[in-house]
Design brief:
The complex is a heterodimer of chains A (about 110) and B (about 110).
Chain A (H helix, E strand, L loop, with lengths): L3 E4 L2 E5 L4 E7 L6 E6 L5 E7 L5 E4 L2 E5 L5 E6 L8 E8 L9 E3 L3 E6 L1
Parallel strand pairs in A: 2-11
Antiparallel strand pairs in A: 1-3, 3-8, 4-5, 4-9, 6-7, 7-8, 9-10, 9-11
Chain B lengths: L3 E4 L2 E4 L5 E7 L5 E7 L5 E7 L6 E2 L6 E4 L5 E6 L8 E8 L7 E2 L3 E5 L1
Parallel strand pairs in B: 2-11
Antiparallel strand pairs in B: 1-3, 3-8, 4-5, 4-9, 5-6, 7-8, 9-10, 9-11
The chains are: A mainly beta (about 110), B mainly beta (about 110).
Chain lengths: ~110, ~110
Amino acid sequence: GQQVMQIPQYQHVQEGEDFTTYCNSSTTLSNIQWYKQRPGGHPVFLIQLVKSGEVKKQKRLTFQFGEAKKNSSLHITATQTTDVGTYFCAGPYAGGTSYGKLTFGQGTILTVHP
Amino acid sequence: NAGVTQTPKFRVLKTGQSMTLLCAQDMNHEYMYWYRQDPGMGLRLIHYSVGEGTTAKGEVPDGYNVSRLKKQNFLLGLESAAPSQTSVYFCASSYGQSREQFFGPGTRLTVL
C-alpha cells in the first residue's frame, strides 16, 4: 500500500538554527498537506501544495513540493521556541476516490533549546 | 463557533469494557474521520464518513464501530476494549476532498 515516510524522526536544534524535515511518498501525490501538532495538542493545518515544483512561504517557514510530486520539504529559518512540536506531512489516499482521506507520515518531532 | 469538539478528554477502561467517543462539529462539514495516534506511528485512520448516514473503514478498523446519525456528530465505539487500543484518538472534519482537515482536541484512552 501507499507509504508516506518522513525524516528525521527527531531533530534537536538551538534557537536560531535552521530546521528541515523531508517527506517522501511511495506514490505520486495530487497534493500534499502539512500539519503542526504542539506538545499535548492536536494537529493544525499549515498549508497545502498542489503544483509540481511549488514553493510557498509563511514567514520563516518554506514549503516545497517536488517536481515528480512524490516528495516535499518544510524548512524553518532561525527557529524559535514557539516552533516546538511535531510536523506531519500528509497525502491523499492512493487509488480511486480518496474521499478526503489522508495518509500521514510518522512526523518529525522538533525540540528547540533556548 | 467551537469547531470540532470531542468528549471525553480522558478515559480509563478495563479490558472488556465498552465505551463511546463523541465527536461534534459545527462547520457543516460533510466529511468526518476518526484517527488514532501512537508514538512513532503518526496518525492512522480508523473509520470515516462522507455524509450523514454513511460510514466506511479506514486503515485500522478492527475492534471499532462508528455511526453518523446526524451530520454534525460522528461516534466511535469500542465494544470490548483491549490494551492494544490504548491511544490518543482524534476526530477530524473537512469540507470535502483535497481540503484541509480540522481536528478536535483528542481523547486520551487507557485500557488496563
